[in-house]
From TrEMBL, chain A:
Keywords: ATP-binding, Cell membrane, Membrane, Nucleotide-binding, Translocase, Transport. The lineage of its organism: Bacteria, Pseudomonadati, Pseudomonadota, Alphaproteobacteria, Hyphomicrobiales. It is found in: Cell inner membrane. SMART domains: AAA. Gene3D superfamilies: 2.40.50.100, Nucleic acid-binding proteins, P-loop containing nucleotide triphosphate hydrolases. It comes from the Bacteria. GO terms for biological process: carbohydrate transport. It is a peripheral membrane protein. This is ABC transporter ATP-binding protein. Pfam families: ABC_tran, TOBE_2. Belongs to the ABC transporter superfamily. GO terms for molecular function: ABC-type transporter activity; ATP binding; ATP hydrolysis activity.
From TrEMBL, chain B:
This is Sugar ABC transporter permease. It comes from Azorhizobium oxalatiphilum. Residues 84-275 form the ABC transmembrane type-1 domain. GO terms for biological process: transmembrane transport. It is found in: Cell membrane. Keywords: Cell membrane, Membrane, Transmembrane, Transmembrane helix, Transport.
Length: 382, 289
């Protein structure tokens, strides 16, 4: 049980090199499942390794349960980590791999035995205790790696992209297994991934990182529906959010003209007055685009473009169009959609489904009207 | 009734011809190589149980009678027992030190980033490139200066310095391929640097360590040049120099030389038999996963 607090954490390799992690401030609550999400090289793994004690912290303060641990070696931080490569000791059996950390901590032999057997039973490894890692499948290795962390009963669990070496089906199973273990252990867990599905499904909160900086922290659906900037908007969501750089009408009532036209009824007049006559970025998610005006809702905007790709996915169909201005956008449409390549179509969206971003900074311009959150309370039966 | 899995019984599938030819060619090459290497050894073995007179009369004749006493004569009367133990002490000590120090140095060079890492590696590597003979005279002088000339300690130190660079070079290459995650995992498990070396690096690197161990053993067991220059006392001779004593300027006791060589070969065969499996694993070792 532990609160992990990162206060102005920076990492600079070689003391003077480029900043790998830049002024990160996050507080991870006790028992929380925090996901650090971002593309390769965004600093998420470096942040995790600094929490683990495997990398020095260039500046800032890291505390676990109120104790500053900047200079505390990894072994004394009471943290366990699951690595992307699993990092199982190849010359040891599964049982020895599980017990290795406990032996060092001089845990009584009977206690080690009990904990190893318990973890093996929970993770379905009881029959494999005598095997060496090379005789295990990818999923089994992954479970041993998780077991090795679990038997330690640490204050904090760290995961460094633990599912990325598994095939798709196994990844879903293991993801559910991890969620279950988090509920069972109720420990603080910090999980690094570049996979938005993992982040959305597993995290209590997610922290999106970009270029060494924290782009946004929040509950998964909050981040999805209220992205802080264009990076978060495009990184979360598949296909990514469609963005159009367009001029705002001089009266501020709408944005664009020609092939893309959007009403700006979500924003207050005072906000729009500052934007009038300038360019801004309009955002619409693929699932908010519809072929008919009725499906999109009464008031809204339109995108006219030529279809250049139709991707039937079974449950739905992705239709990619290119506007006259050469801007591409993708719509997630019903599976029975009758769009053909080279056909010119109109895609409609509701006024409430629009996002607006500042052109220069890419930051979201907060809407003053109703919050666009079409999913309503999850699981609510009305 | 289904025919999907029906297999014709009693008919063996034909092996493709090229594969048969490939197998045959391989057997031929291996056979020829075996005759090439084993032939001289067997010839030497027959000579070791014949005396020099018999050998002079017919070089290739089958031993008749088998003169096993030649081994006793070599071992006891010709002080081969002394030479053997001298060799054993020098070589075993040198190989043990080279293996331990070499593995530790290789681990440090492969794993830790520190100033001068690559310079040290470069110096070690450069000492492999040059022939060891160029150091002979200076080594002789150094040993004389430190009162180590004509001593087994001096020879042991020279042997260590001769084999250490290659050992570090070979092991560094292997250790560098051990994934960093294993070290990080051991650190998280609470282990310090020395324990990680002992519990992770040494067991995982065992095939490579066994390879260098056997190569060093064979190299030093047969080493002649430095031993003949740095040892003058007959009591301190190693086996290769002891065998050389049977070669006079005008007369060579071929039978005794053969018996001496056979004695000296036995430890090498034992060492090879003991470590061969690990040696092969070391040579074919790919990714350490």
């Amino acid at each position: 049980m532990a609160v992990v607090q990162l206060d102005s954490i920076c990492k600079r390799y070689g003391g003077v090199g480029p900043v790998a992690v830049d002024n990160v401030n996050i507080t991870i609550a006790d028992g929380e499942f925090m996901v650090l999400l971002g593309p390769s090289g965004c600093g998420k793994s470096t942040t995790l390794r600094m929490i683990a004690g495997l990398e020095d912290i260039s500046s800032g303060t890291l505390s676990i349960d109120g104790r500053v641990v900047n200079d505390v070696p990894a072994k004394d931080r009471d943290i366990a980590m699951v690595f992307q490569s699993y990092a199982l000791y190849p010359h040891m059996s599964v049982a020895d791999n599980l017990a290795f950390g406990l032996k060092r901590r001089r845990v009584p032999t009977a206690d080690i035995d009990r904990r190893v057997k318990e973890a093996a039973q929970i993770l379905g490894l009881s029959q494999l205790l005598d095997r060496k890692p090379h005789a295990l499948s990818g999923g089994q290795r992954q479970r041993v790696a998780l077991g090795r962390a679990m038997v330690r009963e640490p204050m904090v669990f760290l995961f460094d992209e633990p599912l990325s070496n598994l095939d798709a089906a196994l990844r879903v199973n293991t993801r559910n297994e991890l969620i279950r273990q988090h509920h069972r252990l109720a420990s603080t867990m910090i999980y690094v991934t570049h996979d938005q599905v993992e982040a959305m499904t597993m995290g209590t909160r997610i922290c999106v990182m970009n270029g060494g900086k924290v782009a946004q922290v929040g509950a998964p659906l909050d981040v999805y529906w209220q992205p802080a900037d264009t990076f978060v908007a495009r990184f979360l969501g598949s296909p990514p959010m469609n963005l159009f750089t367009l001029p705002v009408a001089s009266n501020g009532a709408e944005i664009g003209g020609g092939p893309v036209l959007g009403p700006l009824s979500r924003w207050r007049e005072a906000t729009l007055a500052k934007l009038a006559g300038q360019e801004a970025i309009l955002g619409v998610r693929a699932e908010d685009l519809h072929l008919s005006r009725e499906a999109a809702g009464a008031a809204g905007g339109t995108i006219r473009g030529r279809v250049f790709a139709v991707e039937p996915l079974g449950a739905e169909t992705l239709v990619a169009v290119e506007t006259d201005g050469g801007v591409e956008c993708t719509a997630r449409l019903p599976r029975d959609v009758a769009a053909r390549v080279d056909e010119v179509i109109d895609l409609h969206f509701a006024a409430s489904a629009t996002y607006l971003f500042d052109k220069a900074s890419g930051k979201a311009i907060p809407a003053d009207g109703e919050t666009h959150r079409p999913h309503a309370p999850r699981g609510a039966l009305q | 009734m289904t025919y999907q899995n029906a297999q014709p019984h009693g008919i063996k599938p034909f092996k493709p011809l090229p594969r048969l030819f490939g197998r045959g060619a391989l057997a031929l090459v291996i056979g020829a190589y075996t005759v090439y290497t084993l032939g001289p050894f067997l010839w030497l073995a027959t000579m070791s149980v014949r005396n020099t007179g018999e050998i002079s009369a017919d070089h290739y004749a089958w031993p008749s009678p088998f003169r096993w006493e030649q081994f006793r004569v070599a071992w006891v009367d010709s002080a081969f027992d002394t030479y053997f133990w001298n060799s054993a002490i020098v070589v075993v000590t040198a190989v043990a030190v080279v293996t331990l120090v070499g593995a530790a140095a290789a681990h440090a060079l492969a794993r830790y980033r520190f100033r001068g890492n690559r310079i040290i590696y470069g110096i070690l590597f450069s000492s492999i490139i040059f022939p060891p003979q160029i150091t002979l005279i200076s080594l002789y002088q150094i040993l004389v200066d430190y009162n180590l000339y004509n001593s087994l300690t001096g020879l042991t130190l020279v042997y260590i310095s001769l084999q250490l660079p290659l050992t570090v070079y070979l092991l560094e290459g292997f250790f560098a391929r051990i994934p960093q995650d294993l070290f990080d995992a051991a650190k998280m498990d609470g282990y310090g640097d020395i324990e990680i070396f002992r519990r992770i690096v040494l067991p995982i690197g065992m095939p490579a360590i066994a390879t260098t161990l056997i190569l060093n053993f064979i190299q030093l067991w047969n080493e002649f040049l430095f031993a003949v220059v740095l040892i003058s006392d007959p009591e301190k001779r190693t086996l290769p120099i002891g065998i050389r004593a049977f070669m006079g300027d005008h007369f060579q006791d071929i039978g005794m030389i053969a018996a001496g060589v056979m004695i000296s070969v036995i430890p090498v065969i034992i060492a090879y038999a003991f470590f061969s499996e690990k040696l092969i694993r070391g040579m074919t070792a790919g990714a350490v996963k």
